[in-house]
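[audit] Reproducing an earlier prediction to check determinism. Same input, same settings, fresh worker. If the tokens differ from the archived copy the diff job will pick it up downstream; this log only records the rerun itself.
[audit] input (664 residues):
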Amino acid sequence: MAVAKLNKLFIVTHKSDTEALLKKLQKSQIAIELKPYTEKLDLEIPPSDATPEYNSRVKEALDILDDPAEKKLKKFVSKAGKMIVRKAEYENILKGKNFEGIVENILNFREEIENLDTKIKDSEQKINKLSFWSCFKGYLEDIASGDIYTIKLGILRYEKNNFIDVIKKLNENNISYEKLTEEKDTSCVILAYHNQFKKNAEEYLAGISFEESDITGYRGTIVENLEKIQKGIELDKNRKKLLRLEINKISGEYKKPLTVYLDYIENNLEIEKALESGFSTDSVSFYTAWVKESDKKKIISIIEDFKVARVVEIKPYKDENIPVILENRPLFRPFEMVVELYGVPRYFEIDPTPFVSLFFALFFALCLTDAGYGIILAILTLIFAFKKRNIKNFLILIFIGAIFTVFTGALFSGWFGDLPSYIGVGGFFEKLAILGDPIKTYDGAMNFFRLALALGVIHIIFGLSIKFFDCLKRRDWGGAFLDGLPWIVIILSIVIILLSTQVAVNLSLITRPLFPAGISKILIWPALAAAVVVMLFGARSEKNWGLRIFIGFLNLTILGGITSYLGDFLSYIRLMALGMTTAGIAIAINRIAFQFLSTPVVGIIMLLVILIFGHIFNMAINVMGAFIHTLRLQYVEFFQKFYVGGGRPFEALKDEHKYITIVD
């Protein structure tokens, strides 16, 4: 029985999910107030796993899965529309796949294929080099510089018909040679010389057109090396085929899921960009939500089901106008409408609903004070409460008031006015009237008067007590001990002093003094002390002490002071006035109706018509008056003592239906 504790959530959602998310929240039947957030974002939102770098890796992986022939088709299809994916399929795809592992596998396959391509290209270049020297039948490891001899394989170029001169020069420099092939003015040769002639030989070779072969590092013959390299190429090409088959297999199984995953990643990236910029965008929406503390986990769970949505709990701004939900037990819940009509409490203010309930029902009953009307009203409201769901709480409120009316009517002998006396059972109902008949007897009228006045005093003191304890709870010591407690002391002291004097007896408030006369000498001092507190601190915001005391004196006497409280107490006498008005009209209806009883046949019809329609009219007009006057007593006399109101009602996101009503 208080104002519900609320939590504030910040929600970020991609436009692709916004409508579905709002609908799900709307249909969840959980109280949530949702408002678009359009201001500059000044919040620390934890980053997600989505990054531009990872997004590019997923794109690379998808590009690898696309066959070159399919890419043209893909461009054509993209113009026709997007890939169609059902919501359930979308959720299942994102839940059931290890996309990080799949992306890594695809990229690793691509890297291995690229390495194989490089290796094959290098091997083919080696084949080209070795094939050129296939004329050499010896072992390649012999083409080297040894301890004694140096052997070189190379190309010797010379002018046309000048090879004899070249041979002569080779011999002069102690260089042996063997021609392997000859084509026009170029020959492939093997040269050899002793290392003791190495310096002269190399100087000579450097000065002529001799190009040494670059096939070092090989062992065996040219043919053997060519075969070995060719086998390596075949193995690498086979490995490439296997990798291509694996990529095709992955493409068939994961191409669509990866496309969905890429869409998810890019949507999350848009959210990250919007968060970084601080503003919602055409693709990303920001919302703030208020939810009950008990419902927070449920709401977060619903939002987290959407893959392209983020939610974090945030603190309210300083002095933020937090919405208010009233939480009361079922018995008190119908009386929330009384508070809501006046204005819901502020978030940190006390909820007066439970305190209103008893007094409202009792005052409503005293304004009617007819047990017969109470029974009829209770039956009607109970029937309509099950049919008129939209005004159920109001009807239950009237039903509770009607139950109280049955008891107050019995206490004051109100049964459709004095109808029992006309049908011969008046004696039985008079025995139930413990407080007497206020219309027919003086004691009954005075009892009604005293009860109304006593309830007024209790009601107002109760309101001041609520203020006192609420201020203590909020640690508002000034409000508790300088505003609330002094008036409780003053009013209680004056009431007890009055009830201990003969004046109260003369005013017919009591039949004899309720307290000893000497109590006034005791209570006058706390009353005076409380009055001084009101004078000194009633206007404590005023710095000028002279003006402060003057305003304090006015507060004590005129402005909301003793005279004001006296007027408040007298307002409760209207309970008696309205109750006796209901009874008086009911008695008049009975008297008029039974005058027709002497007329044969027609008289009975007229009797029934007047009784039925007369009492229906009397009940209807006085139910309205009872409700309005009881509201006035709550708002003017009771709420003014402790309640401020002015809170912002919680605006729940509801699943509303214009043409149908769905019930449990």
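[audit] rerun output stored. Observation attached for the diff report: The radius of gyration is 51 Å.
[audit] end
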